[in-house]
Structures are given as C-alpha cells and as structure tokens.
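If it is no trouble, can you show me the amino acids of a protein and the tokens describing how it folds?
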Amino acid sequence: MSLIVFPAIDLKGGQVVRLAEGDMDRATVYGDDPAAQAMLFAEAGAGHLHVVDLDGAFAGESRNGEAVRAIVERFPGRVQLGGGIRTPESVKAWFDAGVSRVVIGTAALENPQFVRDMASAHPGGIVVAVDARDGMVATKGWAEVSTTTAADLARRFEDAGVAALLFTDVGRDGLLKGCNVEATVELARAVAIPVIASGGVKAIDDIEILARHAVDGIEGVITGRALYDGRLDLSAALQLAAAA
C-alpha cells in the first residue's frame, strides 16, 4: 500500500493558517478561502485532505463549521477532520456532513471509552490524535502536557477498532525542521494500528523516507507549511508516494 499524502488546511477565524508549535499567537495566514485552497490541492492530484478547526480545538466545539462544510462540498476526495470534536452528536454530525474520518484528540486521553464507542458506531472512521511534546501527550490544542507517553496512549486503543493514529511531534510542527521519523516509526512498530506522520515536514526527502517505512505501519503523512511556502511540490510528493 502506498503512502497517503494529506495536504493540511488549518482553520482559524475562517482563514487558512499555519501555527508554529501549535501556538495560536504564532499564526501565519495563507488565505481567506479554505474551499478554494482545497480545490488547488485537488487539482494537484490530492485525494485526501487533513482539516483542523484550530479554534474548535481550544474551545472544545466547532468554531469553523461553515468553512469545513464548504471544503467538504467542493473537495472531490476524502476529508479527515479534527479540532474540538468531543461529543457523539458532533461526531455523527460531521459524518452526516460528508467527512470521511474524524480525529479525536483531547477526548481520547480524558475519556477512552468515548473513542471506543465512536469507533464501534463509525467503523473505519475514527482516528486518534497522539500529539506529543518531548514524548509526552499534549492536549487541549497542545496547550497542556500530560504525564502519559505517546506509546501508552496508543496501546489503549489497540483493540478499539480505530482506523489510524495521527502522531504529531508538537515541537516540530510548523517549523520545517523535518519530520521526526525515528519517533514515528518507533510508534508504528509498537502498535498494530496504522500511523499517520505529522509535524515538521520540510521537503520531498521527508516523503521519501516515510514512504520507505510504509512496511512498518506508516499509512500516511500530513504536510502544511512546506506546501504553502513552496518548499514541497504536492504533485511530486504524490507521485513519489505512489511509486514507493
């Protein structure tokens, strides 16, 4: 199975932004039409999108719903959505709106049974976000760091039926430092659940290295700032991932 490349659209106040290390005060605005951005990614060949409601992640409920719905309506592929989705009603509402996968982060740490219930109710549709700072799980929009390790959180859901784990090295996110391949591969080897890499992708080399580790259980990679800054060509990344 080839590596899936997920272009990222992070939403703050209805705009397309990228944060540095998850800091809302360090946001760079890249556009004010999220749906148009989604179509640009589609035209480059993307079949998947990773969308995050950043305001929702901090508020604990949807804050950029209008922008998300516009993306889902226009993007012809599959949309994976995260950010403040913490109730059964909100999970169901987003699947009803056409989202293919829902990412659960903070609630996964605070209420593991919620993840299990949602994975059972929506087979193949739930992704657990494992966001780590120095190996420890970060929650509430990365504003807080827990005492739980990334691997320990991941193992809790081995038998829950979740579709994938989304592993982000918070310390690299949005900084173009390069993906933390070592930690990502280590997690993928430690659990039977497919892992999606995120945080720090800076160039085509990151895609190439991760593609080699698809055999270790790495399902995909999320990239944002490198695309927006022109450091990574999406068409080339997609071709490389498919070939690998």
